[in-house]
Design brief:
about 90 residues; mainly alpha; two-stranded antiparallel sheet
Length: about 90
Amino acid sequence: MMNAQERKGYGITIFSPGTPPGVKARKIIFFIGFCLIILIQGCYWLFANSVKPIIFGMPFSLFFIVLFIAIEFVALLVLYFIEADQMEE
């Protein structure tokens, strides 16, 4: 029995058919993590609304933004290297 996507030939596919459950779980975890980082950056004024603590010569609010950009960069590097190792196998 064919589902609606197979009958019409178009649709949104989240994971390609045959993707192992471990890979699906890891991609979902990374997606949720990146969404949280982006949401925290958008609402940084809730956490970092002061100027007084100067860290590395930057006001705390600017340091907070730079810190989360660095965290996101490292997470993207980790994801890239994990996927590159899977492509070799």
